[in-house]
Protein: Diaminobutyrate--2-oxoglutarate transaminase
Amino acid sequence: MNIFTQLESEVRSYSRAWPVVFDRAIGSLMYDEDGKEYLDFFTGAGALNYGHNNPELKRVLLDYLADDRIVHSLDMFTSARRDFLETLDEVILKPRDLDYKVVFPGPGGANAVEAALKLARKVTGRESVVNFTNAFHGMTLGALSVTGNSLKRGGAGVPLVHATPMPYDDYFDGDYPDFFYFERLLEDSGSGLNIPAAVIVETVQGEGGINAARAEWLRQLAALCTQHDILLIVDDIQMGCGRTGDFFSFEEAGIVPDIVCLSKSISGYGIPMALTLIKPELDVWQPGEHNGTFRGISPGFATAAAALRRYWSDDELRDSTITKGARVEGWFNTFVARYPQHELIAKGRGLARGLQFPSGELADAVCQAAFERGLLMETSGPEGEVMKILPALTITDIELERGLRIIDESVRAVLGEPDPHAADHTVDHDADRADHNAENKEHTPA
Structure:
């Protein structure tokens, strides 16, 4: 028995799918302690949009620590906090004509969601919140109450109340008009639905199965919320910071949420950090009414500001993400067309992509086959039926192509299908590695 199985709780999950000990990582590559290389299409569940140990951000972090700068500061004013806020305002908010105040709720995404729900109830004086089928918003009780997954909800140990689920976009496969149920309940005084304080939504449901809402659906939702004086919360924890192309995933729809939750990649380096962005008129907190010890981890402010300046002062990363996402979409659509008998479904936006299988067993088997070939990816969806990829936005074209070829080989192996273009799709890891090292020689670990 090793120390992990001896001392660590049975609640661990990712280590069961990838039973190796990882030691080093850079860019889109991870290495186990034996030196074996893995291409990472998981990236900390979307917390590493700019890759592992991004060299530009690492330099900022090391310089910050070497200069004995403030590390922990609660909500005291610091030069690092000021630099981050000024950069967020100048690089992200003002160019998008967004007027938000910033709440630092704590280090994780669930903290951002809890702050959003708490504030919505305080502002409106109402208790209930509407969420959507297959949503995932976090593991704390408030966030869990607006989460759909039955396994995760079952771990609460207490009733999860004050939340009402509604059908997400295309939940009924287009058989009914958008919001026919939600709108009818809101307008019928006999429906029994209390007017909610807020609606919380993901524009792309990551853990729910890479379900991407249409821009028109999001616009209708925003209009419905405005019509009934309901606050709109967008949970952009996994899909923000450029995952779908634009910095915010809701930009494509042209909507302006009342509250936005950010975490995961906002620090740029994998340092725990979260934000809840709120319209100024919603800022009704009393001093200290919502706080936490780890609201001021200044190294995260430093790397976050550097990431915003480096990657969001122009459209280069945005355009690259959209282009690479289209490349993945093309491969996944090819799988769907090539194997119609297996009823595969390609899903997603940007570099949040999924391939849905008829069962969770098949999707899991594909991920395991890919792991054996040196690729990390996970499953999602209510039954784990979706093979999900979240590669770094900075992934090279060579690495992306290599990963897609591994997925191709893994899908065929699990489905028992021959390769129709063996000469084009045979995975040559040595050649790929040589190409990668030539392209990124200065970043290859010693």
Summary: The first strand starts at residue 22 and ends at 26. The two ends are 31 Å apart (CA to CA).
